[in-house]
Amino acid sequence: MQRLISCLILSLTSISAFAMSHGHTKHETTHHGKAHTTNDTRQEVVFPAPVYDHTLKSMREHLEAVHAVIDAIGTGDFDGASEVAERGLGIGHQHGPDGLQSGHAYMPPGMRKLGHQMHMNARDLVVTLRNADVTGDTQKVLTSLKEVTAQCVACHKAYRLKKGD
Ligand code: HEC
Hints:
By secondary structure, the protein is mainly alpha-helical.
């Protein structure tokens, strides 16, 4: 009975630890002497602390930009949406004052490619939005926006970051 209770406590502790970390760390817990890991298969990429902080800040800006783009599309303001997309998601979105904080140097090639593809698709989105300002083709806009968010999803599925020194 005592064994059962301590095992239960152990499980609860590891579940809450996992929930708190949002899957950022791999937890290895031993139950009944059997080791198991969470099924987080994302590749861990180490960024130096300042680059790490800057990257997450930039990510939050990306999400804000996606939100603002959707907001503008909803009100039919395609021109406004194109400006937000260009500033917040496109090549125009500078990672750091000179791009040096972008983390490119620390990314595995696959990750770099996804990042590049996201900015390319954002550029297409800007063009689609400018056209929609004339045509009003919302469906095309949403398809184009989806091509951007597809890169967010793909990269988040494949990689996670670790704060280095
Ligand atoms: C090239 C890869 C890549 C692309 C593309 C990408 N992200 Fe991320 N993003 C990451 C990684 C890696 C993390 C850290 C995840 C982790 O460590 O669990 C992250 C974290 C985030 C976070 C959390 C920020 C924080 O403060 O913790 C947000 C929000 C986010 N991304 C939004 C986006 C959005 C929106 C897009 C697309 C417009 C996007 N990202 C595109 C790789 C990417």
